[in-house]
# Entry
Amino acid sequence: MSQNARHYSLLDQCLIHLDQGLRTLTNLPKAARASPAQQKSDTALFPQARRLSGRLMRINHSGEISAQALYHAQALTARSGEVKQAMQQAAEEENDHLAWCAERLQQLNTRPSYLKPLWYMGSFAIGVCAGYRGDSWNLGFLAETERQVVSHLQQHQKILPKQDKKSHAIIEQMICDEAEHATTAINNGAASLPLPIKWLMRGMSGVMTKTAYWL
# Structure
C-alpha cells in the first residue's frame, strides 16, 4: 500500500523521511537499474587520471546525496498528490544515480565526501522552503535544479579522462534522466523562478562542487 493511500500523519511522514535520510547517509544504496558502467571495459588509468576521476565522481556522489534530500523534502511539502508522486519518482531515479556513483567511487578507490551530512541537511532545508511556497514553486525549483545539474555534468564530461569509459557512461545516463525530470516538472506547471534565486542556487552549487572536490 502506498504512503498516500495510508494517509500518514505529518509526524509519520517526518519520521519516514528521517529514516530515508539516515539510510541515504549510512547505507550503500541499491539501484533499481543496472549501472551503465557495466557495459564498459574497466580501462587501466594512470594515477593522475584515476585521482581526477575519483574527485569528479565524488562531486557527483555529493550532488546525488543532495538530490535525495531535496526531493524527499519537496515530496513532504507538496500539496497535490500528482506533485508528490513526481517528487517521489524523481527521488527513486536519483537513487540509481547515487548507487552508480557510490559503486564507481569504490572502483576508483576513492572515498565519499566527508561533508555528506551537511549536503543532506542543507538541501533538505532548501527543499522544505521551496515546497512551502506552493507546488508551482516546488516544481520550478525542481526544473531549475535539474537544468543546472545537466550543465554541471556536461562540464564534467569535458574534463573527465577520456579513457575512463565507465564514469563517462554513468554521467551520460545521468544527463538523460536529469533532463527528463526537468521536462516533467515543466509539463506539470513549474513556475519560472526569479533570476536572483537562480543565481543563488548556482552559487550554492559552486560552493558544494569546490568543497567536495577536496573534502
Observations:
- DSSP finds eight helices and no strands in the chain.
- The two ends are 40 Å apart (CA to CA).
